[in-house]
Protein: ATP-binding cassette domain-containing protein
Organism: Spiribacter salinus
Amino acid sequence: MQVRPPLPARRPRLRGRAHAGPRRPRPQRALPSPPFRSRRKGRVLSPDTILQIDSVSKRFSKDLDLAERTARKLGAKLAPVTVHAVDTVSLNVRRGEVLGLVGESGCGKSTLGRMVAGLTTPTQGRILYNGQDVAKMKGAAARDAALKIQMIFQDPMSSLNPRMQVRDIVGEAPRFHGIVPRDRMASYVEEILDQVGLDPSMGKRYPHQFSGGQRARVGIARALAVRPDFLVCDESVAALDVSIQAQVLNLFVKLRQDFDLTYLFVSHDLGVVEHISDRIAVMYLGRLVELGEAEDLIARPNHPYTQALVSEIPTFETGKKTYHAIEGEIPSPMNPPTGCHFHPRCPHAHDRCRVEVPALKEVAPDRLSACHLNDRAP
């Protein structure tokens, strides 16, 4: 089996904060995509937008059960509970790039990924694929979009049918949609397995006969089998050992080059996202708080929440951690704080943060941040 190259060594970082003078607030909306050079990867990305997330929100409601309805009839002040999982998020994803989406558990990043993949319907807002509203697509256009946007799940064991052989799991979708002729199906599945670093002879095995890293590769193979353009990777390496994580991340890099793929890479681990992403979007309690080029965002985080995440990235460097760690627990999305959602845990919070929602605005070239501190003089 071919040995995958190790992840590149981390470069020493200059820690500091990008300051900008007061700027006029602008509404959070998807911005046009100029030509963009990924400094870390050394390649120029396409200015074309393959996916546009336009002011998307998702709310989940929990109706009252029988006991609660009875209590309300007796005078209890009870109402259905509404969870604001995603709150007015706008993003553009350029063709061929890796956009990392990072945040704590419960921040809404996986819900946003599921909406992009078409597994969950937005409560409001639009998701445009190649300029067309996915929700309004019908017939062949809807089918094509469903095939072109695939999702790789966090736990491959729970998403793989334990009663099916891997060759049937990988070949099921292309066979159903007529992507590959029946007489070529066996060789096609073998090619896909080989592309993800699995021996084609393993196609006769069942999911429980694979290791965690191998099952992750099976999940990737299943997504690739329908020839997608866009992959939503939801915590795809979270359950793996560090050494296996490196192998799978290198596989993602290779597949991106081989198949010209675009990734939305969802993870709670900023250290993992750092290695693979061209740009990074940071979410907190349903809202987008910072967006920027990966290397610059890691070196000079602007938002206090991003600074806290960066300070927790493991490093051999000493004397470089200058940011405050996050204190306390993430608030409940059923009862989020007013104003800036992060203000109860922010070491720099002031009165304005408690009452006014900060706008996501440009604070430096190719950098957006939602923090009132940017409106103060340096």
In short: Residues 45 and 354 are 39 Å apart (CA to CA).
